[in-house]
Amino acid sequence: MHVESDVAIVGAGAAGLPLARWLARPPEGARRLTAVLLAAPPGPARVPPRTWCFREAGAGPYAVLVASWQRLRARSGGGRTVRAGIATLRCKMLYSDALDALDALVGGEIAASRRGSRVEAVVDRVASAPGGAVAHARRAGGDRLTVRARWVFDSRPLAEPPPARAALSQHFRGGFVRSHRSAFDPSVVHLMDFRAPRPAPRTPQPAHGFSFG
Ligand SMILES: Cc1cc2nc3c(=O)[nH]c(=O)nc-3n(C[C@H](O)[C@H](O)[C@H](O)COP(=O)(O)OP(=O)(O)OC[C@H]3O[C@@H](n4cnc5c(N)ncnc54)[C@H](O)[C@@H]3O)c2cc1C
Question: How many angstroms does the Cα of residue 105 sit away from the middle of ligand 1?
């Protein structure tokens, strides 16, 4: 199958979805472009679930926040505690499942706009072509799909970092803590704790990079 479009968006993640949404609902007076969103089907190309925190003023586009805070706290390696308010921003937290809901919503909006589609396919190659580029993909059933577009926005993870650049490798380990007595202040988010191995939490600093609890 072959599709022609103004824009092809590879990846329905934190970058791809807002772009697709913006193209489906362009502001008054903006040029109307057709867009194809290529979203990975369930499988290895889908990113694992995660928790996201971000800072934003106002209500924002995500109705499904888990929590939000205006007061932050951090602890230095020497144990010094820094507290600060971040008005007019809020630190907001959502589960990436909310992004799946956004994915479904954006897919519906693109279809309703009649200027594009959301297609589940794994993109294996993006190649330059006269006047744009072609994304080569495979659908869940194995069928080949090519999307030729004037602009291709590719948010697949890089196979290797560009020359003289390091790849940022993040490893997160999380857990739920339950206490017998009231021990947490739900009005403050504790963002970083850089303390040395003792007392807990243990955050020994590696020789390269840094680590926090
Ligand atoms: C555990 C964890 C916690 C994080 N917490 C935060 C946080 O609190 N705040 C924050 O700002 N950032 C956080 N980040 C970083 C944040 O997730 C990334 O910066 C952000 O997701 C990058 O957006 P992206 O669209 O480039 O990539 P992604 O959101 O990863 O999206 C890439 C998309 O491409 C798709 N894809 C991959 N390969 C293919 C393919 N071959 N074909 C088609 N589609 C493909 C994937 O399924 C995915 O949907 C966290 C990351 C992790 C791992």
Answer: 18
pLDDT at 145: 96
The two three-digit tokens of residue 193, written as one number? 């704790």
pLDDT score for 94:
84
Domain span at residue 126 reads 2-49+97-154
Q: What angle do CA 8, 130, 121 make, to 5 degrees?
A: 30
Residue 168 lies in a domain: no
pLDDT one-digit tens code per residue, 72-86:
999 888 889 999 999
What CATH number is attached to the domain comprising 30? 3.50.50.60
Per-residue pLDDT reduced to its tens digit, 143-173: 999 999 999 999 998 878 778 877 776 777 7
Q: Give yes or no for residue 13 having a pLDDT over 90.
A: no
Calculate the dihedral angle through the C-alpha atoms of 10, 132, 24, 147, rounding to the nearest 10 degrees.
-50
- What is the best residue among 155, 189, 191 to mutate for testing ligand 1's pocket, by most ligand atoms within 8 Å of CB? 155
